[in-house]
Amino acid sequence: MKLLSVNDLAFHKYGRVISNVDLTELVQVLKETPVPENVVYEPSVKALEELPVMKTLERVTYGEMPIQIGYCNGHNVLLNALEYHRSSEINIAATDAILLLGALQDVEPDYTYDTANVEAFLLPAGTAVELYATTLHYAPCSVNGQGFQVAIVLPKGTNYPLEGEHAAVKDNKASNEDALITATNKWLIGHAEGGLDEGAFLGLKGNNLNVSDV
């Protein structure tokens, strides 16, 4: 697996670099958030959402839709799973991080996906990208074993517990896409070696990719 840059043309099918919003203050506040040995995700963080850029991101990047700003921090080298939303996701890096990305169009009719299709992209510190709704992604990965800090911007309410009943995974088969939903606005395809909760659809075929190999 080759490590590309989010500034490479190959990234264009997955997203775009955001250059029309000043995220300097947000990055500075993000640098003050914890970096645990594992990965922690907080969907909504008051210290980030109180910044003036919150309203700018709502207006400029989400067309006045209500949003939430949280973070995904920690240490990680493995793919483990891929998820997607019915909306774009913005990633803002306070440290260098690696994004492992795929295309929803490459998911098979039975909802399985070959990890050989995944591409790795370096997200440099201070850079923000929009990942399109058709982009498969999961937790960022570490660069040279260092911890990462990445702000996550999504429509308000995303990644919270589900309230209704949804299709169940039976014998690790998904009868329809509804069996992939694990949280609000979150559809997940896991890897057998990813350590996911029981009941998750383990539809990733191939290696559980390790960024130490790039």
Structure notes:
- 9% of the residues lie in helices and 30% in strands.
- It has one domain (3-213): Sandwich (Jelly Rolls).
- It is mostly beta strands and 214 residues long.
- 39% of the residues are buried.
- The termini are close together.
- Strand 13 and strand 14 form a beta hairpin.
- It is built from 3 helices and 15 strands.
- Strands 2-10-6-12-4-3 form a 6-stranded antiparallel sheet. A 4-stranded mixed sheet has the order 1-9-7-11, with no helix packed on it. Strands 5-14-13 form a 3-stranded antiparallel sheet, with no helix packed on it.
Tell me the β content: 25-35%
What is the first-to-last residue Cα distance? 5 Å
Just give the CATH class: Mainly Beta
Any idea what the CATH architecture is?
Answer: Sandwich
Tell me the number of structural domains.
Answer: 1
Record the strand order, biggest sheet: 2-10-6-12-4-3
Set down the secondary structure blueprint.
Blueprint: E1 3-5, E2 15-17, H1 24-30, E3 39-42, H2 46-49, H3 53-60, E4 67-74, E5 81-84, E6 89-93, E7 97-103, E8 113-114, E9 119-123, E10 128-131, E11 135-136, E12 148-155, E13 181-183, E14 186-190, E15 204-205
Parallel strand pairs: 1-9, 8-15
Antiparallel strand pairs: 2-10, 3-4, 4-12, 5-14, 6-10, 6-12, 7-9, 7-11, 13-14
